[in-house]
Amino acid sequence: MSDQSTKRESGFSLMEMTIAMGLGTLVLGVGLQLYSQGVSATWTVSQRAELQQDFRAASDMLIRDLSLAGSGLGNGTQIPLPSAVAPVYGCDQTPKCYLGSTNLVSGKYPLQSGTPTLYGLIPGYTLGPTLASNPAATDVVTVAYADSSFYLNCYQATVLALGKVTFGPATAPVNGVVPTFPPAGCLPSGVATPQTVNDTMLGLTPGDLVYFPSLNIVGEVTAGTITVGANAVGATYAVPFANSDVLNMNQTAAGGGLNTAALNATGTNPVRLLVITYYIDNTVSPARLMRQISGHSPMPVSDGVVYMKFSYDLYNDGPPPVPAVNQPNPGSGDANDTASNGLYPTAITKINILHMAMDSTLHGAKGYQGLDLETSVSARDLTYSNQYPLQ
Asked: For residue range 118-132, what is the model confidence (pLDDT) as tens digits?
């Protein structure tokens, strides 16, 4: 007869189970909190990196364009424009204008002795919208410089009729010698031929501005280019510069432009003129910094730009030479910048970016970040002078 064991298997009591579950929950809670903090930190770091990358790209582009203001257009760039109808900037071929508090306003060129004048840099004091981030209206800035990537200067331009200009090789003999194409000195080292005027990538397109230095005239391309002929020297291209263009450059009435005084005139060394405007577009959320070239549609540079403000240092060669430092709107006669009365943008020696502020609100209030650019850019192609105001 076998003995039956009376020993019972031991287990957890209810209290032990409760304590174990409590400790396990605590450990899981701590682990979950650490994980959440790690994810939040990752988002913050990635957001900061993205903001810095966007900010750097936007600021680099803006500073590069400001530093090129007036480049390739000669000492003290000031090109008289047609005056029968006020020429404008900040509009495209749709047509639509993008400046002002409603982004539906065009910019007008400043007057010099009553004549609209294109300078290498045009301040746009309070021409931008007022944003919720700051009660003051934002600024706009416009720069103009020659397009050095398109070798239009190798061609000779001839105004054949109102609204029609041809670009082709020079054919008139000089001292009995027929010129060759391309002419010497128009191309950089290592480049054999210029692009065609109707090149699909770099050629002239509607909205482009062309400056004819020998005629001192600016015209706006209004349609695609046409090949009108070719010979042993090269092809000739007809380019429409029709009247009533969007930017009001091709005026045939008295007062400048491609008018009757320019008929059959020949222009040497024409260049594509880049008139670049930076402004804040507040018709979208978040607001963004825009860059518009001549009469083309604007392109976004960066989202989240919440403020933009400029001032300018000018130097009056005198006598006596008196610097005008930190002027918000040079030469306007405004109460805030009387020191620059009588001065023009050609006297600008330095552009001060007082604020170009960017905010990031990715993932709501978490990780809210902001950056602000404050720097100065030398306007070496405007003054050709190394005399800078003392601060």
From this structure: 999 999 999 999 988
